[in-house]
Each structure stands twice: as C-alpha cells, then as structure tokens.
Design a protein that fits this description.
Length: about 300
C-alpha cells in the first residue's frame, strides 16, 4: 500500500480510484506551503491541481515517485527538479479539452453579442437596454488561433464548421491543421487579419508576454482577444492600455497574470471585458474525467510504470 497526497479539492472519482487500488489517501486541509512541505515528506505520490511544486518542496519528498497533474498545464511544477530527482510527472491529456474549447467559444460569442453588459443594463434601466451598442456577427469573420493543440483544434473546427469562419492558425510546432483552416508562418499576419484572436498555447519562457504592446498595435481596433490558456501569455498592463485607449474592442479572459485577480483591476470595471476565474474546465463531465485519469495515472504508475500524458 502506498501513501497518496491529494493537494486540493477534486471530484471524488479520483480518490475512489486510488482507494479501490488499496492505497492510503492523505488530503490537505489548507493550501499553505507549510502543510504541503510537511505532508509530502513521506508520500509515494501526489495528485496536484495548481499549487506550486518547487525544487525545495521536491527536495524534501524523499519517497515521492510520481506527481499526477490534475489537468494539462505544468507551469506550476519545477520540471527540471523533477527530472533530476527521478520523479515522474503526468498529465490528463484532452480530458477537459472540450470544456475549455466550449468556454472559449462562449466568451467569443458573449463578446460579439454584448451579452454581459446588455444583461446588466436590462436589470438596471429596463427595456431601454435594447438601445445598447450593436453587437457583431461571428459568421464569416476571421478567427486567429495561436497554439493549435487539442483545444485549439476543437476551437478551429467549431468556428469553421459551425459558423463558416475563416480560421488562421499560428503554431510553429505543427505542420497540419483541421480541414478548412490555414496554417500561417507569421504571428503578425494572424494578429493583423483576425477579428477574434484566441490563445491556446502553453506557458513557457518563449510564450511569456507573447502578446504585448507591439502585438496589440498590430490588431484591428475592432478585434477581440480571448485567453483561456495561461494568464502570463498576455502582458496585462499592455492589454489594459489597449482597452482603455480603444485599440481593442474587448477581451474575454478565463486566466489572468495573478490569480485571483486584484479586485481593483481595471479589467473588472470595463464593460467590454468578461473575466471568469479559471473556470473553463469546470464542467461536470470534465471534472469527472480529469479526476479519474489523474487517479488512474497514480495507480497504474505505482503498479507497473504505465501512465498517460507523461511529461517527465
């Protein structure tokens, strides 16, 4: 029997998978680093959502064999430290991809149709809210996708097949895109030609502030930016400046540079910005699938070394 640490709240199916395999589950009671350091010391495996797993923490985990990420983004792990210490790191590939793609599309549609501000105005002033500024159609418009992994591909297919959108894709690591979409070699062309720009890239040294002042200057003032990837991919002060100076029509953000976002952030006050709290993967179906696969990765790895979505 192994000891397995669950660092944050997850759908109970993952815990059931681990317990049914005969392992002991240890649940963290807080999100404090001090508790994490204490509880990870003696466990064989840890199932982690977004808590930072640093070199210092890993250095004190003498029995740790596997880190099972609840999701796909691994920017909260010190990957080099895990490699050096011989600790496996796994993810749950595409378990929440549909949910994230649907949320991204919902943000795009809500921005185009002014859904949130019109609803708020209707509650405030009544039927006169029908005179709010006009929305736009997405059918036939150009969607730029930056990062075309599983989520980006889902988004591209929904846009092209469902709304006859022209889809431009920038991703230097792929050679094929969904049928009807165009792979573009220059990021600048995607930014300058798109009516909607959707980010789906991992966070890395290469993509940190990938969209900044220079990139916003290339965009149409009528364009909308949607980010359901990682907050630091966008230079937030540059985004706020572009919005305040009407260089951008609006933004839909499920992620921000700091999470939670500062309550005083201008992003909360702008009517053409929709902000959700890293909520895109939060559907009943995705929560169940991600939790189950994360639990199975631990059970299978401890049994025979097998797993899916292995990073290290």
């Amino acid at each position: 029997m192994a000891k397995v640490l669950i660092t944050e709240k997850i759908n109970p199916i993952g815990i059931e998978v681990i317990k049914n395999a005969g392992h002991e589950v240890i649940q963290m009671e807080t999100l404090e680093e001090s508790e994490l350091k204490e509880k990870i010391k003696d466990v064989d495996a840890a199932l982690v959502r977004i808590l930072p797993i640093t070199r210092e923490i890993l250095g004190g985990a003498k029995n740790l064999k596997i880190l099972s990420k609840h999701g796909v983004g691994v920017d909260n792990f010190d990957i080099e430290a895990a490699k050096e210490l011989g600790i496996a790191l796994t993810t749950t590939p595409d378990a929440n991809g549909r949910s994230v793609a649907e949320h991204t599309f919902a943000l795009m549609m809500s921005l185009a149709k002014n859904i949130v501000p019109v609803s708020e105005e209707y509650k405030r002033i009544g039927f006169a809210a029908k005179n709010y500024k006009e929305g736009v159609e997405v059918t036939g418009k150009t969607l730029g996708i930056i990062g075309c992994g599983k989520i980006g591909r889902r988004m591209a297919k929904m846009a092209h097949n469902g709304f006859d959108m022209r889809v431009l894709v920038y991703d230097p690591y792929i050679t094929e895109v969904p049928e009807g979409c165009e792979l573009v070699s220059e990021k600048e062309r995607v930014l300058s030609e798109s009516d909607f720009i959707s980010l789906h890239c991992y966070l890395s040294d290469e993509t940190f502030h990938f969209i900044g002042k220079k990139e916003f200057a290339l965009m149409k003032p009528t364009a909308y930016l949607i980010n359901c990837a990682r907050g630091p991919v966008v230079d937030e002060p540059a985004l706020i400046d572009a919005l305040l100076n009407e260089k951008l029509a609006g933004a839909g953000l499920d992620v921000t540079e700091a999470e939670p976002l500062d309550p005083e952030s201008p992003l909360f006050k702008l009517p053409n910005v929709i902000v959700t709290p890293h909520y895109a993967p939060t559907t009943r179906e995705a929560a169940t699938a991600v939790s189950r696969i994360a639990g199975e990765n631990i059970v299978n790895f401890l049994r025979d070394g097998s797993c899916v979505g292995r990073i290290v």
